[in-house]
Amino acid sequence: MDNYSDTLQEAEQASVGSRKRSKSSSIDTGKPVKPQKPSREKSGWVKEVWDWSRTLIAAVAIVLLFHFFVFNLSTVEGQSMEPTLYEKEWLFVNKYSYRFGSPQLGDVIILKDPAEGSEKKEYLVKRIVGVPGDKIEIRTGQLYRNGELVVERFTDTVIEDIDYGPFVVEKDRYFVMGDNRHARASRDSRSFGTVPETMIRGRADYILWPITKLNSL
């Protein structure tokens, strides 16, 4: 019995010693533990910024392509196209239409000012009244094309300037006038001559602003 009791006591002491060693091994060292950040947090933020930047770059590129090759917006300056167009109105200019076709009679066009040097960037808005081969003449306040009177419903007066012509429009060139037919109201083909097709930048299709004037031309 005594031997049994000694063995049990020794076992208990061994168990207590083992627990003490276990507790001592888990003692806090007192050093702060740094929280670990998710490794993907930074890379996710960078990817999101890159995605937004790529979308923005693509959008700007598309707008620029459309601006240079398809359309642009132009603002009317001056009174030479009244009563059709008034100053400060915004026009939708179709730059694509003449890539597969030629300008037509009655088109309202945007053209580079023939009176300016090549370094200038002045543009005019006028209406085509004569195409290649047409004979243009102005007499007694009326416009004649190929000997026939042209009825111009978009004007509000007879042509108050002096008579002109007759004149035959050359190949690949166009005779343009402003809709304002009052005296000295428009500088057009009567003063700077016919316009080569290469100087025509596009066709004005719509009035976009002010919204109350929204209309096709």
Automatic annotation (TrEMBL):
Its main location: membrane. Residues 1-16 have a biased composition (Polar residues). Residues 1-40 are annotated as: Disordered. PROSITE patterns: SPASE_I_1, SPASE_I_2. Its EC number is 3.4.21.89. SUPFAM superfamilies: LexA/Signal peptidase. It catalyses: Cleavage of hydrophobic, N-terminal signal or leader sequences from secreted and periplasmic proteins. It is a single-pass type II membrane protein. The chain crosses the membrane at residues 52-71. The lineage of its organism: Bacteria, Bacillati, Bacillota, Bacilli, Bacillales. The keyword Membrane applies. InterPro entries: LexA/Signal_pep-like_sf (IPR036286), Pept_S26A_signal_pept_1 (IPR000223), Pept_S26A_signal_pept_1_Lys-AS (IPR019757), Pept_S26A_signal_pept_1_Ser-AS (IPR019756), Peptidase_S26 (IPR019533). Coiled coil: none annotated. This is Signal peptidase I. It comes from Paenibacillus nasutitermitis. Gene3D superfamilies: Umud Fragment, subunit A. Residues 50-209 form the Peptidase S26 domain. One of its GO terms (molecular function) is serine-type endopeptidase activity. Keywords: Hydrolase, Membrane, Protease, Transmembrane, Transmembrane helix. GO terms for biological process: signal peptide processing. The active site is at 80, 126.
